[in-house]
Write the structure tokens for this entry.
Amino acid sequence: MTEIRACNESDLPSCSTILREAYSESPYKECWPEDRARAYLETFFRIDPKGAFVATDNGKLLGALFGYTYPWHAGSVFFIQELFVSKKRRGKGIGRRLVTHALETKPRDATVALIVREGTDAAKFYEKIGLPKSEIYALRSGKICA
């Protein structure tokens, strides 16, 4: 039976393995060294440990959500930094359960925000659960030329 619970520091190695698996696939095709993946997730775990959750089944880690909450002019924002599920367990409602569980721990006035790559299954997932593309914000990314 799948259980959603708070992430513990001891979960980080398993989380980084699943993150590396997810980002190695198309369309990302990124090669994350183990130490970099763990350091990346550990950064967000340290920022807001109450924003990190894992899905497990009989002790085996299936997926995770890493986010953080911050105050905003009206209420608060819960920013989902990462949400990933093991390839074999995708499409079974685990991602939705992780998001739902995380939101149950946040203030009712919290707005959810995230960055997602256009045209991906992840973008479709977020649309499906009620997070449309922003009409007012756009991501800018690159290197600044001095």
Summary: Strands lie at 2-6, 52-57, 60-71, 76-85, 110-114. The chain has four helices and five strands. The mean pLDDT is 95.
